[in-house]
Structure formats: structure tokens, C-alpha cells
Task: inverse folding
């Protein structure tokens, strides 16, 4: 959000080269975490393997972060300040899959496809991000709530239903997290998700007004 | 939302000719579905007749879709991509009645009536769509929830009350869907409805500011 | 919202002359209705007097409506169409007090007071309207719910709490209307109130951005 | 929000000189209040000391208000009208810490730091204000609800969870204030908090659209 000095060329090359591997690693991270959380009936060997995969992908993120810190030529503190979002994502890697959205957008641009209009792109980007965030949030909350005394979120279906009702700010309250961990994830999800969905709603509104204005001019 | 090549003339002729029949069919679809869902005390013969009507109108939609696919001169995949919304509506035909809104708007325009201002039109369009969506959603959720064990939506009145509280994002949670089907419909309703109502609120806000600005200039 | 032909001079004179009496009558209407609903322990004579006052003020509204219909020189149907809002207010006179807001605004303008900025005026107008709407809504819902079996709104305080939670779209659901009448009022309140509060929020947001932009220019 | 005459130089000097002391006093006020509310197990001596600190800092605010009233050279009524927000804050001093936000912004400006963009500043300001408001609200509500019969807010964690769900307008309703005092604080929190968060969401949306527009131009 600031006027930043240009990225050093070494870092740019690294970013470009790591784009596809990191996208794949994000998916592996989310997938292995999901499998471990949801597959409570799988044999222990499988679940341990999933845990190992999750750990390994996280290690890839950590190495990537370290390399970029090195290449940037900045001190750790200034790097953290400038790459604040990256640091957050390193600690909460479930937000990683948002990288898929960026990667998809970049791929589209390369294909010279007729691109979506401005508002459609904002809607697609923010909507997709909110969906991923909701899925990751439901997963983590389910992990926290599973087996907690007095929990109202009993199945993963309940967790998804809860996540949808929360992101839409409807908040029925028929199923809610009761553990401190689950509630903290919920608050984070509200903070990020509501801004994203506000962007979707706002863009849709602007787009609709634009469509009607154009149509009015044609008459 | 993309810059699209012009519609072929054959398709345009077809679109124009089918406008009124399809609008009528939409209403028949919604009406017969509503009657079957709500008229649980009607004799079986009546309810079967309603089901037949629902099926028949859906068949009309399917034929219309097929003809337009043919006339467009595109492959099925590209057609689906370009006419994504039509495809969704083919699968979820309860959204069809939105066609009524478009038809009404077009009729108004032909009558050379003094037309509503931009914001009023957006509000009317989005508000009417949200109302139809809420009604169709309440109907479907009631159909899913009816007789489900532990359901809190007992009457159609409850379902309408639930739909209003959901679309307004108030979400009291005194009545909520409990079946997976009902919840899936609810999520779809949130996704569409909130964007529509966001457009209503946004337009109202813009309109109010416009009114106050104009009044301020007059002084 | 349409480009309307100018109001006939007779009607304009009537409007000007009736402004203060109608504002007073609005307050009498709301006050007497509130007293009858809240003063369940008052002697019957008092409550009957309140009812009479409510009826009388409604009669004033009806007469005013009839006179304006006459002066407008339009047929009833066209009059109803053009003065749609007035017609709604005739049927639901609890919305009348909104007239107070308009009257206050006009009085301010006459006083040559340094006026509020655009956004501040929108916020004041919409916020005051929402407050009046919430109060009238809480009153009506309390009237419907009072003594209903299984009602969770037991006191007028509960009704006000419910109205606030509803208008803010928070919707806790700890107290909710259960009678069909109460629920219909609630839906109307959501529809009007949310648009009004959306205008408040939107104006506040625009105002804040304006303030920050101006301050940024000063540096 | 009005075009105001310039502040007298005496007042301006006072404002500048009191800036840091008042910011510190705000933090002392919030801290001592929080300690008294949360530290129910502390020895009585400590809690009395906290109360004294709270009182003392409030006295500082009152003195500051009186001095500024004097320096402004206005009558008390006009002063209250012009400095409406300050008067509110004098009565509800938990809103004081918002001063921290302003002080931080001013400090940043002095440091000649590369400043945040317009939208980022609005987001930071409104977001930080909402956070402080939520914390102060949770504290006060907890104070009111503590030990009330039938209270669902049992711990301070519950109060924070309730505040987050309220500010996000999610409103689960699993924990809600039941005392009149707690509910009045809740309504105030909704009124202020929703406007602030609406500003955050709106700015985020505008910022996202700006980013996508700029990126689109680059292609």
C-alpha cells in the first residue's frame, strides 16, 4: 500500500521461478491438512503421512521466506514490516491457498483471453478468496471443536454451514464454536471475510449501476 | 461481462419470439411448484397434475436451451461458458422467474412511460429479484424441511420468515434449516440475495445523497 | 423519483399551510398510540381517550389526503401512483413521524443556520428516520406480541432491544416476534430500516474518506 | 462537520501542550478500569487504587474540558454544540482511547515516514477505533453482566467473543447481555461500531478496485 522502491532483480527472478512450485505446495498443504482433519477413520499411518506432508509444505514456505529475506538485502525488521502479509501467511499458512487466486489471474492474463471487466475481476478475486478462506476456516474450527464438551459443531457439514452463515454475516447461532481456539479462528475469519465480501457486494452494486446506466444511454 | 461478439441474427429472432412464451412458462413453473409444495392436503390427482406442469415447463426451458445452442453456431463447451447464467438457470429453474423482471422492464420501455431514474431502476430490479429469490428459496427450503426430524421450520410462514431474516442478514436463528438440502439452498440464497440487496442499499444510499445534493444547490 | 410536472399552486398553498398542523398531529398520533400500548395499567378511561386521539389524528391524515387528491386535479388511480409514499403512510400512519424530520430540516434552512455538510445531512436525516422507525416498530411489535403464547418479547424494553439488534442487522435471536402480525411488522422494519442505515453507514464512510483526503492535501 | 471559525490561538497552544499528557491519561484510564473490572481476585487495596486512578484520570479530562471551554471564549451552550463529540467523550470516557489513534497518526506525519495511501489510512484509523471501541465495550458489558441472574456472558472471554460477533454484525446470540445497562452499552457499540466497520469495508473495497484498475492499465 506504500510507494515502494523497486524489487531487486534477484528477488524478482526467484519470485517468478517459485510461482508454480509454491502454488502446488499451497494446494498440498491445504489438501493434506484437510485429509488429516476429516479422515478421522483413516488408519494412523495415513494420518501421520498427511501430517508429514503438511509439515513439509510448511517447511517449503519457511525456506522461501528465508531466501526472499536474504535476496531483498533488507534487515529482518524492515523486511517483516514491508512484507507484513507474507509474514502473516507464514504463521497462518492456511491462508496460503489465496496464492492460487493470484496464480490463476496471472495465467489468464498470459493466455491473452478476453479478460473480465474490472468489477467482474474484483468480484471473482474477492469471491474466490472468501470461498477459500471459508473452507480453511471451517476446517480449522472443526479441528478445534471436534470432541470439545458442549460443542454444537458436530460434523464437518455443520462447520461449513457455520462458516457460510458467518461470512454472510447472517449468524444464525444454531451452531457456534465454543472453544477459545475455535473462537479465535472465527474472529479472524470475520475480520478478513467481511472485508472480502464487502468488496464482492460493492463491486456487484457498481457493476449493476454501470450496466443500467449504459442501457439507459442506448435508448 | 465480457466484450462479446454480436449475437447471430437467427438467435436474436428466436430470443424475441420466445420472450413472452418463456415468461409465461416461468410463471407456470413457479406456480405449479408452489402449489405442489404448499397444497399437501390437495387430492393426489391435483398434485400429480402440478408435478406434470412443473416437468412440462422445465422441458420447454430445455428445448429453448437446445435451440439456442444450435443457433449460436458454437460448440457446447464454448456455449456453456458464454451462457453460463442460462446454464445455471436451466439446472435451477426456480431462478427463472427473474425473467419476469427483465420482461417487465422491457415492456415499460416500449410504452414510452416516463421512466424511473437510474438508481430507482436498479433498486426496483434488484429488489424485485431479491423478492422472487426469497420466495423461491422459502418454497424449496420448506419442501426440504417438511417432516424432517428436529426441523424448526414447521409451516410455510416460518420458511418465509426465515427467508426474510436471512436476506436482510439479520439471521435470528429461531428457525433454521437442518437438512443438508435445505442448508445448501440457504447458502445459495445468501450468496445471490446478499449481492442483490447490497445493490438495493447502495443505490438507495447514492440516490439519497443525490437528492440532498440537488436540494443543497437550490438554496 | 420521476420527472414530475409542477405541483398545482392550490396544492402548494395547502401543503404550506398544513405543514405545522400535520407535524403536530403526527406527534399526537405517535404519542397517543405509545401511551395506549405502554400504559396497560392506566384506568380504562385514559386508554379510551388515547384511542380516540389516535383515531382523530388518523382522520386528519385521511382528510388531508382527500383534499390533496381533490386539489391535484388527477384521477384517484394516477394520484395513488404519483403519491405512492403518501398512500403507504396513510395506511401505516406510524411512519408519519418521519414528517418531523422533514419539518426540522426545513426549519433549519429558514433560520439561515450554518448548515451541515451534505454527508452530515444525509446521516442526520437517515439516522433520525431509522430511530423513529425503530421506535414505532418496537411499539407495534410489542402491541402484537403482548400476551401471545410463547412470546419471548415480554417487556417494552425487550421490544426496543430487539428493534436495535434488528436494525443493526446483528439479530441475536434471544428475543424474536412469534405472532404473524409481529413478524410482518418486523419484515417491513427490516426492508425500510436497512436501506436507511445503509445510507448512514455509506455517508459516514464517504465523509471519513473526504476528511482524510482533505487532511492529506494540507500536508 | 461545519465550516468553523478558526480556533483561537490560546486554545491551539493548549491543545498542543496537552496532547501527550491526555493520551497518556487515556491509557491510564482504560488500563485502571480494565484492571478493576478484570481483577476480581485482586486484594481490595489494589482494586481501590485502580478506582482512584480511574477517577483521577477522569478529573484530568474534566479540567481539560473546563480550560478549553474558558479559552474558547464561547458560552457553555455554544461550546457544547460545537464540541459535541468532546462532550460525549467527557461523559463516556471509555471512548477516550480513540485519542491514541489520532496521536499515532500525528506522530507518523511528523516522522516524515512514507505515509499510507488514503484508503489504507482510513482503514487503519477506523479499524483501530473499532478495536478500541470493542475492547472498551466488552469491558463495560462484562462489568454490567457480572453476577447478573441468567447472564450468558460468564467470563471476559465471552464478552470479547460477544463484542466481535456484534461488531461484525454476525450476532450469533449464543451469549448476549441481559441487564438493561449491558444492553444500552451494546446499542451504543452497534451504533458507533457499525459505522466504523462500514468505513473499513468500504475503503477496502475502493482500494481493491483501485488496485485492479491500475493493474489493468499496465497491461
Result:
Amino acid at each position: 500500500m506504500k510507494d515502494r522502491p523497486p524489487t531487486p532483480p534477484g528477488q524478482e527472478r526467484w519470485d517468478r521461478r517459485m510461482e508454480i512450485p509454491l502454488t502446488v505446495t499451497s494446494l498440498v498443504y491445504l489438501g493434506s491438512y484437510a485429509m488429516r482433519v476429516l479422515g478421522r477413520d483413516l488408519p494412523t499411518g495415513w494420518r501421520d503421512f498427511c501430517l508429514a506432508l503438511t509439515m513439509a509444505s510448511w517447511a517449503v514456505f519457511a525456506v522461501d521466506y528465508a531466501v526472499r529475506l536474504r535476496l531483498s538485502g533488507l534487515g529482518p525488521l524492515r523486511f517483516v514490516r514491508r512484507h507484513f502479509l507474507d509474514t502473516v501467511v507464514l504463521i497462518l499458512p492456511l491462508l496460503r491457498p489465496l496464492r492460487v487466486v493470484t496464480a490463476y489471474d496471472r495465467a489468464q492474463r498470459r493466455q491473452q483471453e478476453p479478460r473480465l471487466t474490472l468489477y467482474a475481476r474484483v468480484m471473482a478475486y474477492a469471491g474466490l478468496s472468501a470461498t477459500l478462506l471459508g473452507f480453511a476456516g471451517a476446517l480449522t474450527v472443526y479441528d478445534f471443536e471436534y470432541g470439545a464438551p458442549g460443542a454444537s459443531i458436530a460434523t464437518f457439514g455443520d462447520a461449513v454451514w457455520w462458516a457460510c452463515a458467518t461470512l454472510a454475516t447472517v449468524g444464525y447461532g444454531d451452531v457456534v464454536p465454543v472453544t477459545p481456539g475455535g473462537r479465535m479462528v472465527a474472529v479472524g475469519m470475520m475480520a478478513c471475510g467481511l472485508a472480502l465480501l464487502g468488496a464482492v457486494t460493492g463491486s456487484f452494486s457498481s457493476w449493476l449501476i454501470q450496466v443500467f446506466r449504459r442501457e439507459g444511454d442506448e435508448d
